[in-house]
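Researcher: Structure for this, please.
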Amino acid sequence: MSVVQKTHALELKRLRKNFGKTEIIRGVDLAVEAGDRIAIIGPNGAGKSTLFNLISGRLEPTSGEVLLNGQRIDGKKPYEINRLGLSRSFQITNIFPKLSVFENLRCGVLWSLGYRYTFLRFLSNLDDANERAEQLLRQVGLERKRDVHAVNLTYAEQRALEIGVTIAGGASVILLDEPTAGMSKTETAHFIALIKQVTVGKTLLTVEHDMGVVFGLADKIAVVVYGEIIAFDTPAAVRANARVQEAYLGSTVADAQTGGH
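Model: Predicted structure, token format:
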């Protein structure tokens, strides 16, 4: 009787990355199920951003494999990986500042709808692209800012727009790098709800330092320390993991459980 091997939405196998003689990522294995929301946490310098860069193609691994829906993507260019169904945001907001909110979103949908190099003067005639951009406007709550240049948005609004651009192409796997950094508590709470809403049915990986966000958003947590994943489990299990507490969380776990009291 043959055994059917399960295909994961995202899988890392024995992934390593060296910079010169310094080993930053040290044999990471991680299998993410479709539809899961995964938070990647760890102290500064643990290798979280490097891991994101390896997954999204900004860096090539020294060895090991990255698979997206069963297909190897390590060694591919970022735009090739994006077209295969993986999209990411960055710590620093990455949008077109001189375009309106609507124009930013419309640019994000063009490739997924089959449009390649289209002169801007023709974009107003692309009914499907315009309709999809209008849908995204509503999804990210920026209808009232439709014609505002992105540079004139508040910081939280710019982050919401970047989320919209990130999901615009219809990627099934979304990577968000510190999406709530720099936000107030009120903005953060709104943003958690927004992320949950726009990633329904998608697989989400996020790097996040705010433990309230982590425990409020993630189905599972991967803890990275010195380039290795020392735990990958549910928030409750990670919260109770003595090795994790010693290596990273400490009193932060208790604060997240009690609201800081």
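Researcher: Any notable elements?
Model: The chain has two domains: 1-85+171-256, 94-170. Residues 52 and 175 are 8 Å apart (CA to CA).
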